[in-house]
Design goal:
The protein has twelve helices and 15 strands. It is an alpha/beta fold. The radius of gyration is 22 Å and the shape is globular. The structure holds adenosine-5'-triphosphate and magnesium ion. Adenosine-5'-triphosphate binds next to helix 1.
């Protein structure tokens, strides 16, 4: 599926805007504050029913409105599929309403499955500089889209973990409740970990291939750490850590402590790389995920890139665009100078659309 049209109302400075014909490569240009990022934010709301700024809706919805809505038409990428209309409405006071093909839809999961969205913006630097949570979420997005049983097991694991931690805090030291949660936790945890390991095994070579094309001599090493000692069973680790778990009131080991480690000469990549290099590594990570998804789940993927040219020199902009061009992605990118992106040698079969934003109003160029 790819987005063929969009209608946005009440997202930041976009009071009402329609784009009838979207392309494969969509470039949004305009001055600072014109509304470029707000377009990406709207597409993010359409695919995930939430902003990329966090859970607060107040800053995302136009001052004069109580709600924002985004509608999109999805066009099949093969000839077999059907067009589907998707709409998401959010209110300042909370709640969301999702419509898919004319029906109300409760599940955010269904929305995420239909419209897999990846985002690269200033905050995605957190993948390198932030804590393990962002990196776990990153890897789990990929696993979710290619491993059927993952989401159910992940939810079971989270539930068992919460209950196990509750039992730990309530001081039920040697009795059955903890053992019961242990069994449930271990079973789900192993499914989650196996799915992540399998995903990582296919992710690693794709990532290195993309990274080498962008930064040939970075010396960056990526590894997956599952959240407990690699030579021991989770069962044994939980038994060994039991007293410590009770003392601190939480579970020290398990897939909830997993991490994707990115290092250079043993140091965290976020501490070593320059800003531009970090951005390129994040692009390689995100593109590797998109590539695996297109391949493994046979789904189209939408990639939102905010201000791609910022902090990237012309040589690396060209390399990045060449990689983007080679993937079967629908791209939504913003930039201040349209030429930076529009003048890249996109292949002939790609449909390039350039839009200009002025004070929240869109014109197709
Ligand atoms: N809740 C709101 N209601 C109305 N306008 C808002 C609201 N929140 C932000 N704005 C305005 O909307 C605009 C949003 O700009 P946006 O971030 O999309 O700009 P941009 O084109 O990406 O700019 P830049 O090039 O600086 O990144 C800003 O001018 C901001 O002042
Ligand atoms: Mg912006």
């Amino acid at each position: 599926m790819k987005l063929s049209s969009l209608a946005i109302s009440g997202v930041r400075n976009i009071i009402s805007a329609k784009i009838a014909h979207l392309g494969d490569v969509n470039i949004f240009t305009g001055l600072n504050g014109a509304g470029k990022t707000s377009i990406l934010e709207s597409i993010h709301i359409l695919g995930l029913a939430k902003s990329f700024r966090g859970s607060q809706l107040q800053p995302v919805i136009h001052y004069s409105s109580n709600t924002c809505t985004v509608f999109g038409e999805l066009e099949p990428t093969d000839l077999e599929g059907q067009h589907v209309a998707v709409g998401v409405k959010r209110a300042k006071k909370g709640g969301h309403k999702i419509r898919i093909a004319g029906q109300d839809e409760k599940s955010l999961v269904r929305l995420a499955e239909m419209l897999p969205i990846q985002l690269i913006n200033a905050a995605t630097y957190l993948l390198l500089e932030g804590g393990p949570k962002q990196r776990r979420q990153f890897i789990d997005w990929g696993v979710f889209h290619v491993e059927q049983e993952f989401y159910g097991a992940w939810r079971r694991m989270q539930r068992a973990l919460k209950q196990r931690n509750g039992a730990l805090r309530s001081g039920q030291v040697h009795n059955t409740p903890l053992a019961a949660w242990d069994n449930e936790f271990i079973e789900a945890a192993l499914t989650v970990d196996t799915a992540r390991q399998r995903y990582f095994a296919s992710f690693e070579p794709v990532f290195y291939d993309l990274l080498t094309q962008l930064l040939p001599d970075s010396g960056l090493v990526v590894s997956y750490e599952r959240g407990w000692h690699s030579d021991l069973s989770l069962d044994a680790v939980l038994k060994e850590a039991k007293q410590r778990d009770f003392k601190r009131g939480f579970t020290h080991y398990g897939p909830h402590r997993a991490d994707l480690k990115l290092t250079i000469n043993g140091l965290a990549a976020g501490q070593v790389l320059s800003r531009g290099q970090q951005k390129l590594v994040v692009c390689a990570l995100k593109l590797a995920q998109c590539q695996l998804m297109i391949r493994g789940a046979a789904k189209a993927c939408i990639l939102l890139i905010d201000d791609l040219p910022a902090e990237i020199d012309h040589i690396h902009q060209a390399k990045l665009c060449r990689l983007l061009d080679g993937l079967n992605l629908q791209l939504f990118m913003t930039c201040v100078e349209a030429a930076d992106l529009a003048n890249q040698p996109w292949s002939d079969e790609k449909n390039i659309a350039v839009f200009e934003l002025r004070k929240g109003e869109i014109t197709a160029l």
